[in-house]
Amino acid sequence: xxxxxxxxxxxxxxxxxxxxxxxxxxxxxxxxxxxxxxxxxxxxxxxxxxxxxxxxxxxxxxxxxxxxxxxxxxxxxxxxxxxxxxxxxxxxxxxxxxxxxxxxxxxxxxxxxxxxxxxxxxxxxxxxxxxxxxxxxxxxxxxxxxxxxxxxxxxxxxxxxxxxxxxxxxxxxxxxxxxxxxxxxxxxxxxxxxxxxxxxxxxxxxxxxxxxxxxxxxxxxxxxxxxxxxxxxxxxxxxxxxxxxxxxxxxxxxxxxxxxxxxxxxxxxxxxxxxxxxxxxxxxxxxxxxxxxxxxxxxxxxxxxxxxxxxxxxxxxxxxxxxxxxxxxxxxxxxxxxxxxxxxxxxxxxxxxxxxxxxxxxxxxxxxxxxxxxxxxxxxxxxxxxxxxxxxxxxxxxxxxxxxxxxxxxxxxxxxxxxxxxxxxxxxxxxxxxxxxxxxxxxxxxxxxxxxxxxxxxxxxxxxxxxx
Length: 468
What we know:
Elements: H1 2-20, H2 26-36, H3 38-58, E1 64-81, E2 85-87, E3 91-93, E4 99-120, H4 124-190, H5 196-231, H6 235-238, H7 261-280, E5 287-311, E6 322-326, E7 330-344, H8 352-418, H9 424-458
Antiparallel strand pairs: 1-4, 2-3, 4-5, 5-6, 5-7
Helix pairs in contact: 2-4, 3-4, 4-5, 4-7, 4-9, 7-8, 8-9
């Protein structure tokens, strides 16, 4: 058992060590950037609100139960004035003969439980649910656009790193050639074939080249820092990346402008506004709900008394009459239940419903205008990107030809300098021309790849496998 555990630990250590010594591929860079991108994370967080709204809307039909209660001291007085009662010849009581104040005091308690459940919303909930579903799909589609933007940023940084990497190779090759020509110049100076001034020209060219190499190192560090911030991958691993730039060959687009994320998102937004209009149009339809209530009413330590006699005096028998002074132990009413179905019908709402419908229609019109404007701009953008891609392809062919000519010119200049047929000035010019031609060729490839990325994004067809 111990041997198996040791083997497992050694395997894990070897895996992490090997991973730390391996250059990250573009897919790893992209996946790490997707996880860390602030815009993508913020958009995903905002999308949770729409999902929450959908859950809240579904919960509208769930029953609700509310319990409330109250305890207080009660002191109430009611004045009772008897009306006229004329039942002659048997009874005649004039108005106001009995004028009494009845007082009730004590501690009261009240408890109530209310239950409600929506049965029918007039169709509003169903339409709003459809609108929220369209909104959710719109937001998910916009995630595609944000993901493409992240991929484009990482692709650009990766290709820039490849560009400086290729530039370093060009500079190293130029340095090798200048070192060889420096030895030739040293011999030529010793034989008196060139002047000290010509010799100093080559030294100046070497110093200039060293300055360019130092500039390259600064650009490389900046790009490595950018990739480290975007991906979170350690810079030491990023240093192991040695990418090579190559032109990208694209086929004709398989999709149209209508399949861009922005257009599809706007289509769902327009659909959502249509359902919102239908939801607002239900304002006049009655809403039905089920209701039930239960009450408890109690009076404790109560006293009910009157200010005057309740039973009038009877002089004939010497009865003085009697006031009311009752102290019941407690009074309770429980349970008192009510249950039934209620409805609400807004026959006239002060045109509030009509205004809400008009507002929803204006929102839909705004979205339709946005789609029209977006279609025009994206069509122009695709044409521009196609033109840039075609130009970038032609530039690669041109820069390749210029590089071949500069290479042949340098070979000829080196021969002439070696045999004393030209000065160092011509040699340095030829060297500079070749260096510039090689760097221009690498820049042309970089620009062609950027144009290819933007052309693929024009119709939402960004395919990283065509680039790496």
